[in-house]
Specification:
Elements: E1 2-10, E2 25-26, H1 34-48, H2 50-55, E3 69-71, E4 75-78, E5 81-82, E6 84-85, E7 91-93, E8 110-111, E9 114-115, E10 120-122, E11 126-127, H3 130-134, E12 145-150, E13 170-175, E14 180-187, H4 189-205, E15 219-223, E16 227-228, H5 229-241, E17 246-250, E18 256-258, E19 261-263, H6 268-280, E20 288-289, E21 299-306, E22 312-320, E23 325-329, H7 332-341, E24 354-357
Parallel strand pairs: 2-13
Antiparallel strand pairs: 1-14, 1-15, 1-16, 3-14, 4-5, 4-14, 6-11, 7-10, 8-9, 12-13, 17-23, 17-24, 18-19, 20-23, 21-22
Bound molecules: zinc ion.
């Protein structure tokens, strides 16, 4: 397996539905969901290279061992790096955005010679990695948006409104052109070259996201050569090994199931799935909750996306939200491998991504 990283830059407005259309207003997500990237590649290969479509395992929705291509969410950049979801366990000063030390209720920083003393609040959303070294919230680069009003057109063309006219103008929120996002994709060696060489053509023949017939969805991919998973795991396990504690934070919604029921949080099912995923990729599945695990959990609903079912929403699934976190124990190698491999269901759509950070 290779980890492929790079940037996706919008060349036209982009729109990614979040399933929460209100009236005639369609809101967009502020990032590019992995499932739409997978959908674009899948749709293109299905039309143009059926052998590669099959080799990627794109018809497979649930069994990760049969998948050879895993798209990840493309998140806004922060200081040139892909941003991550802030762990929910921390509190940040309302005034200067510094980390509130554990056990304290107010900020102990000094501002212009005076103690800051403001209270803290949780932060939900994406942050730059520098947040961890600077102990202060580092916001990602802004994702500028536009709002456009479109009029529905009927086949009969431009007529004045009749008595039975039902159509209303609608409003599309879109990401502006010229915004870059951090791209990540895990691909088997057998398919990576083929997939990389089709990205450009797929992006301008298929496009990404909604309202493509309205001129939305044009992007540019710029990728670096893939890095072997083993090399990446070795590098990251060295960094993780130096940390005193290991906080596992979800960087996308995570879906864990037990007997067809979705289980929210970091229970036995989560660790069982994580360890069996590691074992199936040849790593030791030795991750367990820490002695003082203190999990922080919120719930989300995500839309499963199936190429097999006509590239449509397959199901609405309860999931554990990104930002949910728990202190864990395990060998640095296993923790590093879990960052690369992910945990839970619908992994090829970008769900189940985690990252490990030390105590801050
Ligand atoms: Zn402060």
């Amino acid at each position: 397996m290779l980890m492929i990283q790079g940037d996706i830059t919008s060349l036209s407005p982009l729109h990614f539905g979040n399933g929460r259309t209100r009236g005639t207003f369609s809101q967009t997500l502020p990032y590019i969901p992995g499932r739409t990237i997978r959908g674009m590649i899948g749709w293109y290969l299905f039309q143009n290279d059926h052998a590669l479509f099959d080799a990627c395992g794109l018809a497979e929705d649930h069994d990760a061992t049969k998948m050879h291509l895993f798209a990840r969410n493309a998140y806004p950049l922060a200081g040139g790096m892909r941003s991550v979801y802030a762990p929910l366990k921390y509190y940040w000063c309302k005034g200067c955005q510094s980390l509130i030390p554990a056990g304290k209720t107010e900020c102990n920083m000094t501002m212009k010679g005076f103690p800051c003393l403001q209270e803290g609040r949780r932060y939900t959303g994406m942050i730059g990695m520098e947040t961890f070294s600077e102990k202060r919230l580092k916001n990602p680069d802004p994702v500028p948006m536009r709002l456009e009003t479109k009029c529905p057109i009927t086949r009969d063309g431009h007529t004045s409104m009749g008595k039975d006219w039902q159509l209303k103008p609608y409003h599309i929120q879109g990401i502006e052109p010229g915004v870059s996002f951090g791209f990540q994709m895990l691909a088997d060696e057998t398919v990576s070259e083929g997939v990389l060489s089709c990205l450009e053509e797929a992006s301008y023949t298929c496009g990404l996201g909604g309202f493509r017939s309205r001129g939305y969805g044009l992007v540019d991919f710029s990728t670096e050569p893939g890095v072997q998973v083993k090399e990446l795991v070795d590098r990251r396990s060295g960094e993780i090994g130096e940390q005193e504690t290991h906080l596992l934070t979800l960087n996308s919604p995570c879906i864990t199931r037990s007997h067809d029921r979705c289980i929210i949080g970091f229970g036995d099912e989560f660790f069982r799935e994580a360890n069996s995923r590691l074992a199936s990729a040849g790593f030791s599945g030795d991750i367990s909750p820490g002695a003082d695990a203190s999990p922080e959990i919120t719930k989300a609903l995500v839309r499963g996306w199936s190429l097999k079912n006509g590239n449509k929403v397959d199901e609405i699934v309860p999931a554990t939200s990104p930002g949910s976190c728990i202190t864990v124990e395990g060998s640095p190698q296993s923790l590093a491998a879990l960052e690369v491999l992910g945990v839970g269901d619908l992994l090829s759509c970008g769900y189940g991504e985690v990252y490990i950070s030390g105590g801050i």
